[in-house]
Amino acid sequence: MPERPCVLVVDDEPLNRDLLRRTLKRDVEVIEAEDANQALEMLAARADVALVLSDQLMPGPSGTELARTVRARHPGTPVVLMTGYDQDPEVAKSMTDGFVIAIVSKPWQAPALRQLIARLLARAALA
Amino acid sequence: MSAVLDQIRQVLEGSVDAAVVLDSDRRILYYNRAYEASTGLRGRQLAQRVAAGDRCYDVFPLEICKTACLGCKARDVGRALRLDEIKAVRGDGEELTFIVAAVPVKLDGGDLVIIETYRDVTADVRIQRRLKVLLERERRAKENLEEVVRERTNELRQAQAQLVHQEKMSSLGRLVAGIAHELNNPINFVYGNVDFLGQYMEDLLRLVALVDGAPLPGELRAQFEQAKADVEYDFLIDDWRKLLRSIRAGAERTASIVQDLKTFSRAGGELQEADIVAGIETTLNLIAPLLKNRIEVRRRIAPSVPRILCHAGHVNQVFMNILTNAAQAIVGEGWIEVTIENVEDARAVQITITDSGPGIKPDAMAKITDPFFTTKDVGEGTGLGLWISENIVRAHGGTLVWGNAPVGGAQFVVVLPVRALDATEPVVERAGA
Predict the structure, then answer these.
(1) For the domain A6-126, what is the CATH superfamily, name and number?
(2) What ipTM, to 2 d.p.?
(3) For the whole model, what pTM was predicted?
């Protein structure tokens, strides 16, 4: 079995994690964290995480805060944010500051999300 | 000298009213000191004229002397008469006002004399007149004051209503933002999962078809057929797609409502100077699929439209809503006219959008900006577009009015002040979530 890239899904909502796993499992290996702190622990434990897909609003540190830390500790791992507030100034700023490489608006559609993740992974692999 | 006359003199001498005693020929038999003052003649002058036999109406002419001599009348009717507010001009030219009384008196010798008294009420009349003016002035001032109070009360009431409305919209904005955000995840579950459910169903039915097509031992075949009958298999394979379609349609409609609510409530972002003309052009491009070749867009745009300080995304949303409605209202071929003018001495921009559709029905006229009011087919509109538009326009200190155009169908007029948002915050705030 060819090795598939690993995507870390960060969301406090279990149903969302299930849905993301369902959506992405054909293309990537999905691992899950329920908040930013757990995500950072998993990133520290696994060096092969190719991409982080995180919700913005969670208990504890937000998605943008997680992205900032990931950028500092694991500069090669891109972060994608999922948010209901696509006009959130904090989210927009994280994109311009370069901590986040893409923003996914909720509600999202499965085919579009799969395509986006595939494209970003291809780009990350080239980098 | 008659004893009666002597008594009369004694009575009249100290009177404050001017008084004369006249004979039947209106010659002056006696006058008192007050009379002297009233005539304005010097003591000697008066005495000389009286001695010379001058008539009372020459010595001290009242306005009535020539036409209706009161003394004569009193003599004729044989009783005292009185007239109020009789004017006379004194020797020095000043106009005076008197109450004049005339009493016929028979002397002991049988002669008839007339006693006339003149009470000077000039000052009273002046005071009265003055009072009247003052009272009138006060009445007007009071009326004025009532008018001013009424106006101010009205203004205050309007300001208060506006404040209450703003506060309401602000809390509503926060509430709506909260709800929209909370709905995001559950909608995503339905929306995202429904396709997997479809895929799983396809997979399962393929398995069933595989079994169905395979040669089965008699007993197993019978069991299989029985189970198919029990679950109404033939109906199920037809119905599941419909079921999935309605779940997806429900989720899509909910998602579009949430999308609209987010527009209504989300942060306005940075204030910026926006080019309204360019914004409308962009919007027209976005709805080009609705216009296709069937709707002609007519533009009447003033040569220099000022840029407007606003939340550009919100303002474009307003035009998007109005233009989409216009395009959807036109059945078959038609036109939309967009007029952009400078109004209020270029302190505001007025955008008028008229379509050739059927217009707004009278019973819908008052309701079109009510939330969830729609005349579109089920699923075509959320009924939030114009509600949101009105709130956005209002938050920008502008106005949105609508009606039916004399030529054509519905007409919407948006007026946006050029710099209304300089100092004020938008009404709708972002939820703190």
Answers:
(1) Response regulator (3.40.50.2300)
(2) 0.71
(3) 0.51
